[in-house]
Amino acid sequence: MCAIVDVNVSHEVFGSSRPEAGERFFKWLNSGEMRLVVGRRLLDELKNGRAQEWIRQAILAGAVRQETASTVDTREELLFQEERCRSNDTHVIALAQISGARLLYSNDKELHADFKNRLLINEPRWKI
């Protein structure tokens, strides 16, 4: 299973004092049962703070799936032109569409609405 971590909760997953949900998510990532998916823009956002070293090591170990920048950028531009996203995170929706990731860790309510929008992400169903 592939998952996306929004930058607004990266401290909850990769920080030193994680809430219970962040701790479970981090353990799940480390177990190898779930792979983190990143694209150029999200990867750039996550490179700030404690996530940077974990992601760098996980990419080298094959535990992170990295989508090509041009593919995500092209899909993001299409989403931007369609104006269907309520959030300002079209790059996250584009990444989910391309990668098939259907698990999102985020506190952004507008991004939640986009992730639940069947016109944006339909099959397979999602979890937030």
Describe this structure in words.
The chain has 128 residues and is α/β, with parallel strands linked by helices. The chain has one domain (2-116): 5'-nuclease (Rossmann fold, 3-Layer(aba) Sandwich). Helices cover 52% and strands 11% of the residues. The protein is built from seven helices and four strands. It has helices spanning 10-14, 20-31, 40-46, 51-61, 69-82, 90-99, 109-116; strands at residues 2-5, 35-38, 64-66, 103-105. Strands 3-2-1-4 form a four-stranded parallel sheet. It is globular. The model has no long low-confidence stretch (mean pLDDT 90).
Number of domain modules: 1
Could you tell me the CATH topology label.
Answer: Rossmann fold
Find the CATH superfamily: 5'-nuclease
DSSP strand tally:
4
Task: Fill in the keyword field for this structure.
128 residues, 7 helices, single chain, 4 strands, Rossmann fold, 4-stranded parallel sheet, alpha/beta, globular
Mind sketching the topology for me?
Elements (H helix, E strand, L loop, with lengths): L1 E4 L4 H5 L5 H12 L3 E4 L1 H7 L4 H11 L2 E3 L2 H14 L7 H10 L3 E3 L3 H8 L12
Parallel strand pairs: 1-2, 1-4, 2-3
Helix pairs in contact: 5-6
Brief overview:
This protein has 128 residues and is an alpha/beta fold.
